[in-house]
Amino acid sequence: MFITNKINLRIPGPTPIPPSVQAAMSQPMIGHRSNEASTLIKSVSERLKPFFGTTENPLLFTGSGTSVLEAAVVNTIQPGEEVLVVVTGVFGDRFAKILTEYGAVVRRLDVEWGKTPDPEDLTSRLQQHPNLKAVFFTQCETSTGVLNPINILSPLVKKHSDALVIVDAVSSLGAVPFEMDAWNVDITVAGSQKAFMIPAGLAFAAVSPKAWSIIEKNNNPKFYLDLKRYRENLSKGTTPFTPAVSLIFGLDAALELLEAEGMTEVFHRHEGMKNLTRAAISALSLPLMTSEEDASPTVTSVYGADGWDSEILRSDLKKMGIVIAGGQQHLKGKIFRIGHMGYCDPFDILPVLSAIEISLKKQNVELRLGTAVQAAEEVLSQYV
Amino acid sequence: MFITNKINLRIPGPTPIPPSVQAAMSQPMIGHRSNEASTLIKSVSERLKPFFGTTENPLLFTGSGTSVLEAAVVNTIQPGEEVLVVVTGVFGDRFAKILTEYGAVVRRLDVEWGKTPDPEDLTSRLQQHPNLKAVFFTQCETSTGVLNPINILSPLVKKHSDALVIVDAVSSLGAVPFEMDAWNVDITVAGSQKAFMIPAGLAFAAVSPKAWSIIEKNNNPKFYLDLKRYRENLSKGTTPFTPAVSLIFGLDAALELLEAEGMTEVFHRHEGMKNLTRAAISALSLPLMTSEEDASPTVTSVYGADGWDSEILRSDLKKMGIVIAGGQQHLKGKIFRIGHMGYCDPFDILPVLSAIEISLKKQNVELRLGTAVQAAEEVLSQYV
């Protein structure tokens, strides 16, 4: 067969798994209360700290990222308390939904999808609502591919308010700089299946001393998502409930890869992938959904031409073994998204660009085959 | 080295992982919203049904077993509602703790650890509290090794009450018969790292139509553990939040093994392991914690002699590469527990018995080396 059933998975998570991570996950099982497990749990928590940019030890949860978004809500916000959610897409909206479910008074700063908020709009919402208990941000809004500038937005909260800052960094942490302590972030949530290159099933939260002081007074009913249980157990090198040990084996190996490459280099690689992908898409005259400044190094969203169904492109690519993401909610059929985070380098993206060219040509879009790849190679050659 | 660092993991979960399951979990990652993922999710849910003994499709959660114990509570019980928890050890007590956290009025039927409840005691508690909304049982109480007779206890609830029956079957389902529909059970919770032979991180719940009618009216705040979201998504072959795909690959392979062996044969094997282990322990004159009738086919708990510290035995075994469990809470140091569920056969238990003999001898217990193994072989020879 000319095209085999090899899969080139280029969605914004889960990402492909590196071979050394696969091998680590295939180690024989160990008892989750053993000394070996404790050593492992302490080690991975310690080594996650630089990615969060904090002196606090990140907590480990067995669950999807959403479970820890919910933990960030249920441990800090009591019913009737006022919060602000900066909504830049599907995942900002998810924070708002969780908060509504728990009886918070939810103020929203809705931003046009594909854009980041104007800092002045944030300031005026903060001034308008002086009693906010927390402000919720999404660092990379996976649904649109924007990277919200937490380094600018979070200090504004500190300037105008006593509110906690809670950040969903699930689809960015590990791929882009994050300085939780320096930026005044109180809770940062991340997940396993994105830049950390392991399968879904683990999620992480780092919590500031200010947030702990609120959490200690919180009396919402909670059990599995009770952050205090995780802190207490982590101090003893364990988790309150049976953890996904095989995924922790994987995390250990993934952190080894990230450490060997070096954090700065990892961020540089992701930045390069963004530049390369954007240059290639521009060469095809397809409209990028985000500006250069707002774009995330982990995922690139692209509009099709007018009246064009991006699902046709995705379906063509699928036949070539290449899996990209479509649009969510009202963007379904309107955009496609290329994930370039985690276990991914330029040579993983070049074939995606070739496949896009072939599909467009097949759909009678005028183009010279090789146009996007040429533009990508031009970016790439600056790095070699 | 005479004794290598090979590990013989014989705790009551997590269990060792079969090679075909390891291999399945090492398959390349796929998108969790792909058709392949949907086919897989539908398939494993369908194939779990016979183990639950129900026509309802079991729901798949990414989390520890406790997350779904909490789901069973938060989706059915409103604050102030009265429930009965049959507590036979640590995990029954966990149900009570979760229920207390969520404001239920908790009635307890506390049973001496190591025993199952007297059906008459259950009947009298049911008659004493006519307004119970649910009765909570633990099938195998992992902390003591009893198997509560849900086939007898659950129909009693139906006879005397309108309460839902909710069963934690985490450390037994897949190893022993369970007939959810026939026994009048409304919610059954199970986990991945026990008889299903995969790492921790997946958990399951099957829900009766009667329970759904209660769940539909329930208005507790909930998001990640909202059972309705899981039902709605499962009908479309997916999960509401990113699932632990690698573990689902593993579950698929584990179900293949269980199907190839045959459910009856799987149960028969576990029953044999119980008989073999108990015969061996009795031959050593160590007191078993449970009667023949109350004992679980998945785990055997053993008391030491008076004044004896079971942690010394565990530590000796550890040096021989054999990992068994100790006692929890007030039983720490008093008992040890041998897990014999999941990927385990008699020849995995014989070395554990040898190691126990060697440790006892070292501790100046009078015995002839080989005594326990001989008794185990006698049981085993009846099966060969």
TrEMBL record, chains A, B:
Binding site for substrate: R337
Entries under InterPro entries matching the protein: Aminotrans_V_dom (IPR000192), PyrdxlP-dep_Trfase (IPR015424), PyrdxlP-dep_Trfase_major (IPR015421), PyrdxlP-dep_Trfase_small (IPR015422), SP_NH2Trfase/AEP_transaminase (IPR024169)
Assigned keywords, A-Z: Aminotransferase, Pyridoxal phosphate, Transferase
Modified residue annotations for N6-(pyridoxal phosphate)lysine: K194
Cofactor needs: pyridoxal 5'-phosphate
Top-level taxon of the source organism: Bacteria
Family per record: Belongs to the class-V pyridoxal-phosphate-dependent aminotransferase family.
Biological-process GO terms, alphabetical: glycine biosynthetic process, by transamination of glyoxylate
Molecular function GO terms recorded: alanine-glyoxylate transaminase activity; L-serine-pyruvate transaminase activity
Residue intervals of the Aminotransferase class V domain: 29-329
Magnesium recorded as keyword: no
Xref: SUPFAM superfamilies: PLP-dependent transferases (SSF53383)
Protein name in UniProt: Aminotransferase class V-fold PLP-dependent enzyme
Keyword ATP-binding: no
PANTHER family, per database record: ALANINE--GLYOXYLATE AMINOTRANSFERASE, AMINOTRANSFERASE CLASS V
